[in-house]
Amino acid sequence: MLRFGLRSKFIVLSCFLFLLPWLGYEYVWEMEKFLRQGQEKTLVGTTRALATALHERPALFDEQTNFLDQVIKGRDLYAYNLKNPIQLDGKLTDWEPYKALFWHYDKRYLQKTNKNHQASDLSFDHMVGKFDNYLYAVFNVTDNTLIYRAKNSLSITNNDHLKIGLKTPDGQFNTYIIAPRQDGWVNAFNANTKAPFTKIQGYFKRTQTGYTVELRFPLAMLGNKLGFAIVDTDSLNELTNVMSTSNLNNPSDLGSVLVPSPEISRILKGMGHSGSRIWVVDNHHRVLAQSGTIQNADGVWADGLKNQPPQNAWQRFEQTYLHPLYYKILTRPENEFIDTLHDVASMQGSHLANALKGQPASSWRLTPDSKAVILSAAYPIWIEDNVIGAVIAEETTNGVRTLRNKSLEKLFNVILAVMLIGTVTLFFFASRISSRIRRLRDTAEQAIDAQGRVTGSISYSDSNDEIGDLSRSFANIVSRLGGYTDYLENMSSRLSHELRTPVAVVRSSLENLQSLEQTELSQKYLDRASEGVERLGKIITTMSEATRLEQSIQSNDPEPFDLRSVINGCMQGYLLTYPKQLFTLDICPNSLPMQGAPEFIAQLLDKLINNALEFSEANTAIEVNLKQSENKATLTVSNTGTLLPEGLSEHIFDSMVSVRSQHMQQQPHLGLGLYIVRLVCDYHKGSVSAQNNTQNNGVTFTVSLPLAN
């Protein structure tokens, strides 16, 4: 059975200290929730402050914002901010970072429906961008047949060409045509006067699937309307295909173009140190200006929390050993994550929808790679009681998470120190208690031998705690038990001494009465009285025998003798004394030298044989075996008959213990025979045991005695 001591129990109880990290984690988690709520309120306040700077300033917003019913992707263009100017060479290398922003135009954008139209016949990818004071446009056209403008031709439309339609800032509608004669640098022509228009510059280059066109023209000539059309003229006899961003034939059908407002960008630039990414959108969700990057938008919570190199030995130990353990549970904020709103032309979200309805709102979202949580807040921009747009600010929770991690690191350091000190203290406290209890246990076991006799005393403790009280109680109990045991041990000798005189008086009186003439009835009573006195005499003799043996053992000096000779001689006497009893002998032929008292061994064997005779069934043999096993001699006496009661095999050798039934009590027995056997074994430093035999039809007594070297 697994032992579960006090120290183990204290260590198990100290495991409840592990609740401290959990409680600390829950506390910091609740703190993080409050910090997120604070971050949310702070971000809404940031958008409110910026929106206040934009209220009632209609000049900052394009008037098209008020009159446009809806924004249609592909028709209404958005000029993305370009990081660098575009080199007009037709290779599209500078456009590679913006390939995801290209819009694909297919047969849906044909001016006349053609069910037989194939993508290889005509299609193109297109986008516009803004850098400094110029608007850039790119077209990657798929055309299975490319027709250049003839060198001697005065027409600029009987060939493949690009048509541009725009409104100037003063509202004038103009159209321009790009009709190249060959690959290379191109300029536009005024569609009405056919005069060259050098402000629109570009580069035309043929490709395996069609051609590419890159254009650039000043933003100053552009209003809020812009459209492009690719005209495919395969031959004079075939139908001309026109694929356009919007209808360039009707100025009212021309698509809108939104160029990020430089004025709003300058206002946002002042908010660049707010720790947020900020957007300004119109009421059609189009982005008017943008400032900051979300990777650096940790908010004000991350100020002063940047990781610093360790300054001392403790910080180096903490960083090397503790932090890897802590971050099995914690997660480090990631600055590298997927941003789905990078360079978008249009914003969406429930917070923006509510803001455009006039209600400030915020929302949380998880990045697609689940590495960061982004908080977005939106606040409406008002012009004459109308919502003209909204300010959107975004931050990650990295600052809050960093603050949480720093708090948990410090908290875990304190908790680990408390747990370590608490566990060590509890361990030593439990060790102290358990050692005191073990000493008390050992002292108690040494004070009482295996037979229950008090052989010593318990040294009590002067401590004022419960263990000290227990040791003093044990000492008192053992002292009283010692006195009582001494009284019981000497009672037989006292009784035998005190009873001899009255028994002798009764016996002499009966003998005197026997000499007188008696009647038949009186003689009968005298005989019964004589028989009773005789039994009392035998009882007194038995009691005296045990007492004498104990005294003899204490005073006897051991002498060398041959155990085999003693056992063999005794058995020869039993064969003569009990001629009707069957004996089976198996005595080893070798001599068995011992140190002790041969008369005690004879007395031991006498008690065992008498016990076997009383309990043997008729016509069954008593088996006596004597064998040598290494440096020990083993004597066994077995008989067939009554079995030992269950649980009595360990106590049958105690004083005053007997298993004889009432009908077997023909002779007086005080249960001292086997007690004498044990005394003899103890004197010879041996052992004795009794158990039912393997056939379960009798009892076997086994005596093991050490041999002399």
Walk me through this protein's architecture.
The structure is a single chain. By secondary structure, this protein is of the alpha+beta class. It folds into 4 domains: 14-61 and 262-406, PAS domain (Beta-Lactamase, 2-Layer Sandwich); 70-258, Immunoglobulin-like; 459-555, Helix Hairpins (Orthogonal Bundle), CATH 1.10.287; 557-706, Histidine kinase-like ATPase, C-terminal domain (Heat Shock Protein 90, 2-Layer Sandwich), CATH 3.30.565.10. Helices cover 36% and strands 23% of the residues. It has 12 helices and 24 strands. Strands 1, 2, 3, 4, 5, 6, 7, 8, 9, 10, 11 and 12 form a 12-stranded mixed β-sheet that branches. Strands 14-13-17-16-15 form a 5-stranded antiparallel β-sheet. β8 (196-206) and β9 (210-218) form a beta hairpin. α7 (398-447) packs parallel to α8 (466-515) and α8 (466-515) packs across α9. It is rod-shaped.
Question: Keyphrases for this structure?
Answer:
alpha+beta; Beta-Lactamase; twelve-stranded mixed β-sheet; Helix Hairpins; Immunoglobulin-like; five-stranded antiparallel β-sheet
Question: Which secondary structure elements does this structure contain, and how are they paired or packed?
Answer:
Blueprint: H1 6-14, H2 19-54, H3 64-67, E1 77-81, E2 103-105, E3 123-131, E4 134-142, E5 161-167, E6 173-178, E7 184-190, E8 196-206, E9 210-218, E10 226-232, E11 241-244, E12 257-258, H4 262-269, E13 277-282, E14 287-291, H5 313-326, H6 350-356, E15 361-366, E16 373-383, E17 386-396, H7 398-447, H8 466-515, H9 520-555, E18 559-562, H10 563-577, E19 583-587, E20 593-596, H11 598-615, E21 622-629, E22 632-640, H12 673-683, E23 687-692, E24 698-706
Parallel strand pairs: 1-3, 1-12, 19-21
Antiparallel strand pairs: 2-3, 3-4, 4-9, 5-6, 5-10, 6-7, 7-8, 8-9, 10-11, 13-14, 13-17, 15-16, 16-17, 18-20, 21-22, 22-24, 23-24
Helix pairs in contact: 1-7, 2-7, 7-8, 8-9, 9-12, 10-11, 11-12
